[in-house]
User: Which sequence fits this backbone?
């Protein structure tokens, strides 16, 4: 009976990339593109209308805004930008 070493057990757990995941990015894109083209030709491809796209964007915005630290950073950068613009305007006026 063969003994299992750490490397052999990792292989049997399926941690190595196989199939589509093992392909390089260009090959994956090519295959995915062909699938999208086929779906459009078949008439089963999904296309967003403007209302659906708006709802998707709103949902993403809500998810981002839950991260309080991220929102604070955005606000801080905006405040710094506004302050520096106001200083530049004041310098120009004098």
Assistant:
């Amino acid at each position: 009976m063969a003994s299992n070493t750490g490397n052999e057990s990792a292989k049997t757990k399926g941690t190595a990339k196989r199939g589509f995941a093992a392909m390089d990015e260009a090959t994956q894109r090519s295959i995915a593109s062909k699938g999208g083209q086929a779906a459009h030709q078949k008439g089963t491809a999904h296309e967003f209308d403007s209302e659906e796209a708006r709802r998707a964007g709103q949902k993403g915005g809500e998810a981002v805004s839950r991260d309080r630290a991220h929102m604070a950073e955005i606000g801080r950068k905006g405040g710094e930008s506004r302050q520096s613009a106001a200083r530049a305007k004041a310098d120009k006026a004098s």
Summary: Residues 12 and 23 are 20 Å apart (CA to CA). The mean pLDDT is 85.
